[in-house]
């Protein structure tokens, strides 16, 4: 059962998608004070376990620490941090009494779970303007299910998608895929998926199958599935221009393709060529002035005037003096005709710095207009930004809140373990 309580004038976050009536009075659990902001206090039993708060620090049981929902992009996820990227103001108390609480409050809110006083759970925020949802059920699991229902359930990929997938271009026949599967299984290497690159298509056309090599395709899919392997066909970003090809004709008819300002289409014509994977040239002052004038001044002089560290291994930015490009030009290679060129950038190594790379969020110019695809971050974004009026851009992004789990996910990649924690983790991995 879920009961909704209203305090003051809440900001409508739209986190809860289900319409519910507002209860009168106060919740049956804990005590509430609105004299100085909002405060919820509950006296915990010694055996109570407190779960929740989404992407928060420390272990599953949140007791004996303080957590602050105040979204903070801090990569140093040490044990002492109280705020991380997301704010999931949902907790479950499981023990003598079992119930869940969701505090629908989009500003800073503090969860003191036995941190100040061991037996007290205290939730407080500056203003008494919020919705409080109290959830009771048969178990903690049941309470979580009810909560997910009112905020919207997130997409959960199929189990096999969490496994290992082999991906490589060049597999053209069913026998090629069987051979790959045999190689893995004969060597006792687990494999759950094989990705099918563009060679499975008919003449490299999206949403087609090679008519000669993939006859009886459904039967082949069943065969591989019986071996525990799913086939994952890719879709190419380019649609072939061909009269009579239904995908192309539908795209033209319904306006799916990008057009120039004059209404014409920009068509790419591919020809046979050798493409050099050359690395970067952001450490060569003359090449930057010639090909990337917008960002040339953002490279520090000591990068231009020093030799690269040839033993540094891979870093974003590659080899910075442009030797690969110069080699190609010496043997008569053509330079791309588009301008300006884009460097690879260097987020953490020598070369161009974060002054003009790695912009995230919804990108807007000074007039509030979106000016590029946000998937193109780093140096690609930098080239656009350097050409904007006043070279000025604004990044607008949404902090993680309870609702976003239904449509997105969290960044959980950072790990900053140190000291005893790191030793324990290392020893555990050696035992495995």
Descriptive notes:
With 432 residues, the protein is of the alpha+beta class. It has helices at residues 140-151, 174-186, 217-226, 246-254, 285-291, 301-304, 323-330, 379-386, 419-431; strands at residues 2-7, 31-33, 38-43, 49-52, 65-69, 86-87, 90-94, 99-104, 109-113, 120-125, 130-136, 165-168, 193-196, 230-233, 362-364, 394-396, 400-401. The protein contains nine helices and 17 strands. A five-stranded antiparallel β-sheet has the order 1-11-8-7-4. 21% of the residues are buried.
Helix content: 10-25%
Mean pLDDT: 83
| Poorly predicted tracts of residues | 346-357
Summing up helix and strand content along with how strands pair, one would put the structural category as alpha+beta
Overall form? globular
Q: How big a fraction of the residues is strand?
A: 15-25%
Q: Work out the radius of gyration.
A: 28 Å
Ends apart, CA distance between termini: 43 Å
Number of strands: 17
Outline the biggest β-sheet.
5 strands, antiparallel
Largest sheet, spatial ordering of strands: 1-11-8-7-4
Q: Report the order of strands and helices.
A: EEEEEEEEEEEHEHEHEHHHHEHEEH
Oligomer type: single chain
Number of helices: 9
């Amino acid at each position: 059962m879920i009961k909704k309580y209203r305090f003051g004038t809440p900001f409508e976050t739209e986190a809860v998608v289900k319409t519910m009536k507002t209860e009168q009075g106060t919740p049956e659990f804990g005590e509430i004070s609105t004299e100085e902001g909002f405060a919820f206090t509950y006296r915990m039993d010694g055996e109570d376990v407190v779960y929740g708060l989404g992407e928060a620090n420390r272990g599953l049981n949140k007791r004996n620490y303080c957590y602050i929902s105040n979204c903070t992009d801090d990569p140093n996820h040490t044990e002492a941090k109280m705020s991380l990227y997301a704010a999931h103001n949902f907790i479950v108390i499981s023990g003598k009494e079992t119930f869940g609480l969701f505090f629908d409050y989009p500003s800073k809110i503090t969860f003191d779970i036995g941190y100040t006083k061991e037996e007290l759970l205290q939730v407080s925020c500056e203003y008494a303007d919020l919705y409080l949802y109290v959830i009771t059920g048969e178990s903690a699991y049941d309470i979580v299910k009810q909560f997910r229902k009112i905020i919207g359930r997130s997409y959960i990929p199929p189990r096999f998608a969490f496994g290992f997938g082999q991906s490589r271009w060049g597999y053209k026949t069913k026998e090629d895929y069987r051979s790959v599967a045999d190689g893995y299984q004969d060597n006792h290497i687990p494999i759950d998926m094989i990705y099918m690159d563009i060679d499975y298509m008919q003449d490299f056309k999206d949403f087609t199958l090679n008519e000669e090599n993939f006859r009886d395709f459904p039967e082949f899919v069943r065969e591989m599935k019986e071996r525990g392997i799913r086939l994952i066909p890719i879709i190419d970003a380019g649609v072939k221009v061909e009269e009579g090809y239904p995908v192309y004709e539908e795209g033209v008819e319904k306006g799916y393709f990008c057009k120039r300002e004059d209404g014409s289409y920009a068509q790419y014509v591919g020809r046979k060529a050798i493409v050099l994977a050359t690395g970067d040239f952001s450490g060569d002052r003359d090449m930057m002035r010639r090909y990337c004038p917008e960002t040339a001044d953002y490279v520090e002089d000591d990068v231009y005037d020093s030799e690269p560290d040839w033993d540094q291994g891979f870093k974003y930015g590659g080899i910075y003096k442009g030797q690969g490009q110069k080699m190609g030009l010496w043997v008569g290679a053509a330079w791309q005709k588009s301008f300006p060129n884009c460097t690879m950038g260097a987020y953490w190594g020598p070369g161009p710095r974060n002054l003009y790379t790695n912009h995230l969020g919804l990108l807007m110019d000074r007039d509030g207009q979106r000016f590029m695809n946000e998937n193109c971050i780093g140096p690609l974004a930098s080239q656009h930004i350097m050409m904007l009026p006043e070279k000025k851009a604004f990044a607008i992004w949404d902090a993680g809140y309870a609702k976003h789990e239904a449509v997105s996910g969290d960044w959980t990649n950072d790990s900053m373990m140190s000291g005893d924690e790191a030793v324990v983790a290392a020893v555990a991995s050696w035992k495995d």
